[in-house]
Amino acid sequence: MEVKHEIRIRFQNRVETINCLDGSNLLDLLHQHGYSVYSPCGGKGRCGKCIVRVRGEAGSLTDPERRHLTRSQIEDGFRLACQVRASGTFEIDLSSADQLVILSEGTETPFKPDPRIRQRQIRLEQPSIDKQHDYWHRIRELGFKAATPRALQRLGTLAQKQDLVVTYSGSRILDIDELTSGTASRAAYGIAVDVGTTTVVLYLLDLTNGFQVGAHAFANPQSRYGADVITRIDYTLSRAGGAEDLKNSLLEALNQGVRELAGKNGLDPGRIYHAVFAGNTVMLHMLLGVNAASIANAPYVPIFTDGLEFSADELGLKIHPDGIVELLPCVSGYVGADIIADLLVADFESDSWRLLVDIGTNGEIILGNKERVFACSAAAGPAFEGANITFGMSGVPGAIAAYRIEDNGEVSWQTISSQEPRGICGSGLVDIIAALYSRGFVSPSGAFREDAPLEQYQGQRAYRVVPGKEIFLTQKDVREYQLAAGAIAAGIKVLIGEAGISEADIDRFYLAGGFGSYINPESASVLGLIPKSLLAKVVKLGNGAGAGARQYLLDRGAKARADELKQKITYVELSARKDFQKHFMEAMLFPE
Amino acid sequence: MEVKHEIRIRFQNRVETINCLDGSNLLDLLHQHGYSVYSPCGGKGRCGKCIVRVRGEAGSLTDPERRHLTRSQIEDGFRLACQVRASGTFEIDLSSADQLVILSEGTETPFKPDPRIRQRQIRLEQPSIDKQHDYWHRIRELGFKAATPRALQRLGTLAQKQDLVVTYSGSRILDIDELTSGTASRAAYGIAVDVGTTTVVLYLLDLTNGFQVGAHAFANPQSRYGADVITRIDYTLSRAGGAEDLKNSLLEALNQGVRELAGKNGLDPGRIYHAVFAGNTVMLHMLLGVNAASIANAPYVPIFTDGLEFSADELGLKIHPDGIVELLPCVSGYVGADIIADLLVADFESDSWRLLVDIGTNGEIILGNKERVFACSAAAGPAFEGANITFGMSGVPGAIAAYRIEDNGEVSWQTISSQEPRGICGSGLVDIIAALYSRGFVSPSGAFREDAPLEQYQGQRAYRVVPGKEIFLTQKDVREYQLAAGAIAAGIKVLIGEAGISEADIDRFYLAGGFGSYINPESASVLGLIPKSLLAKVVKLGNGAGAGARQYLLDRGAKARADELKQKITYVELSARKDFQKHFMEAMLFPE
User: Fold this and answer.
1) So what's the ipTM on this one?
2) Does the pTM of the predicted model rise above 0.90?
3) Lowest mean pLDDT among A45-59, A152-166, B150-164
4) Do A299 and B129 make contact, defined as CB atoms within 8 angstroms?
5) How far from B213 is each of A342, A377, B196, B200, B207, CA to CA, in Å?
6) Residues A95, A96, A101, A103, CA torsion sign
7) Which domains are present in chain B?
8) Which of B141, B224, B393, B428 is the 20 to 30 Å CA partner of A557?
9) Which of B157, B291, B294 comes nearest A291 by C-beta?
């Protein structure tokens, strides 16, 4: 007789008990029972992300666990699920989601998927001369209420078959297949899309179990019409059909991305039935071909902010033509659906106050608790994305992302993908200026000091970042940083004032977005971008927009939560406020 | 001061009083106040259709009225609305809809349109720094709940305008226009389509006032795949993609018809927002590309019978892509949406029993009152459409549609469009056989008598229909008629038995369909196709399918009535019944 073990899974308020054979892999077991545990390396022990807390006989630690887990994690019973093999009865706890987010610096919390798109096996009773109801009537009797013309065509083709699988949303049937032994032809997939101004990321998920099948990133092809949203809006104003051009260029790239991602994973794009889009407000307007000019000028009012829903065919997205397309809601012209997605992943359902900052071209700032939420967008300018910085570049291979000056004056740096340094991205910029300020080479007002080790670059005093390389930081670059960081720091102060609280009331400071993932909080704190008192409360959220879109795809309840957040948020327009100007002047100075 | 008159309009249970200038045309006045009065000649006094009942000072009779109205109509106060000019106070009655149908042999009853597609003028408050709600939010505040991506694109383009016109259905916006002085660019039109196996008829209606703008008929191009539905179904079985071929051929012709009809009337097909389809069950399956094979074989079960709704884009119909497409519900495989459309126009909301017969390839028969409705389909074969008859042809120019043998033996005939006789259509066939039977040339069993004036045609005894012309009626033709008519007469008897009533309980006998419009009820009665006792109760409904589809388009309440009818109808499958066989044998004999 085979040895069997019992595993108890604690998740939210439930406990589920599953039985397994001796030696079963815990990560596989969790996936088989519908728990989505983030495991980007596929269970090979390489990524160290599938952290779970285990009590009981879970076997001894493996090398990958020793590499990825800290001593205190190990003491607290954390393990990598992919490394645990059932060798006795034990219990695992998936409830401490918060802790997982912090520990893994990842963005996924484990959950059982509850997607809108579902599949169900049905048996179609064949008609007789006494029971002449039509086939669709027989399906309606099972509780379905509507079907697309294509689903009816499929029904016409499959009418003689008895065992069918219907793919549906609510009570509406989108597709019908014959029940066959293989599952590949009748799986249901979804895509979550984070439409960034610069980069678009597509995530492909299996809706039947919530697993991420693959991901694909590509440069937003609208860049050819302008690097930033304002230039793109200008393009739509300068020619008839401009909004259509922008829509089409994005849509073509999306469709190609879907084809590639599906092809690489050996599946038909027609098996994708749901697409969820997060992105800033202008990107979502441009995705629909809606003129966004009103966002560019005061009073900066978008055409729409609601979450919207269409068919894939209506949008022109080449997944299943009757697939559902949803856009997450936005808050205002400059607080978009990407921020709502961040908030779906962060935890604002708390008594205490939380702060979230997502820095890109603008810095979106959210301050709230479960009762009240305030939002603003600080026009930081694209300094953190490398624009306006002499040797600035975005976070691509070769960008200096981390930088230190040792006590002995030696410098060290890290570049993205460890390539030869070619320039400076946002997190590198913060590190370099913080290092110069700490060494006393820059004054609190941001001016290079007379005694700083400077050279001349194109007629300006400049700091050579990498010895022997032509990569400089100029006085102007420091000024650009001060403008950008000052706007964000001032925005935080305005919201704190608006909420009537103090910094001490904030118990968590989420950093979201790519820049937020790379930034060194210590350096940001040295320069005042992160208030000193909040440094210990920093939580990196990673790509919250993508994670929130994935959650929207896998959890029917996410839409209600997003709509509730949108309703709850009080948008604070900074451009109209005197206190913002005052804080801005102060925040440009580095803390003494 | 101008002379003014008061006109009181009785309509259903309401009386509306309108004021008008002396000499105003009554038809124009009715149209201006939203009453749809059938007037295909456009008020020129040529068609004689716009019959209304008038009491009071309505001026003297005109020549067109003397031509079109019978003496008894004139005595009862009926007038042609286009000929009446206001010369005093008078009252008109639009309530006697039944009477109008009978009198005009038309299919329209006057009514105020209440379409699903509506237009509304809105004023868009411009945003300010204090009121930053997005534009769509401002429109939602007016009571709308959803908009298509295209409508949002339009909103983006028109955001700076203050006065807009929205075209909507329910609370969903389909289109947005700027309010301009002209109305052409922002009217809303609909099409009602009767998809016949042989002929497709498109009606174009102005949804803002209910007027019929034009109509267009074309041969169903699916004929190239087979003249009848069974041959077409065989085609779909014989090759992959066959159902798609049939769909595409019909859709292409529909789209061309829409283009032509819109073009002829100087309007953009994109201003058509609603399309309603009636037709037999197989045609509606083929319109959607749904395989109809299950209808061809016992137990004759269709894939769907429900009324369905899609977007124009989903179907591939080239009206406004977000336009609504609706299919009327069917009852069974051989009692289709065309019959439901007939019933919307006929009056079955009565205490007494009504009978409706719609003869085409099959004869659909409906017997009911406001409580119970029975339906069956008698497989009459296509004899009445000219098939299987030696010189048979459909009702096209040159077909003998009426025929008499005078007491002196002279024959007279009428052909369609008064062209040279080329063959015999269904109503001509009935007249010829009735004349031969009345003269004693044919026995009650349908055999040519020995003493009949017959010739030889292709080795058969045959009656030369037109002296000097090679148009014959053969013994086999009489047999074909007997089979077709016998099936219908037997179907009527089965339903009467099913309802547990007698012929005397029936107080109205509606004849629907093209053949029903042309048939001479006297002749049909001579041959027993129409029972003698019901002859005086015959009402010709004209093209009920087209009229019912138009009503569906113009009246939001029609869908609920159609669904109720579908629910109420008990379908009686004749092929399974012994009593049908018995009645059929008897009904093939002519009454003695």
Assistant:
1) 0.73
2) no
3) A45-59
4) yes
5) 54, 54, 21, 17, 10
6) negative
7) 4-104 (3.10.20.30), 117-185 (3.10.20.880), 189-327 (3.30.420.480), 337-381+487-587 (3.30.420.40), 382-481 (no CATH)
8) B141
9) B157
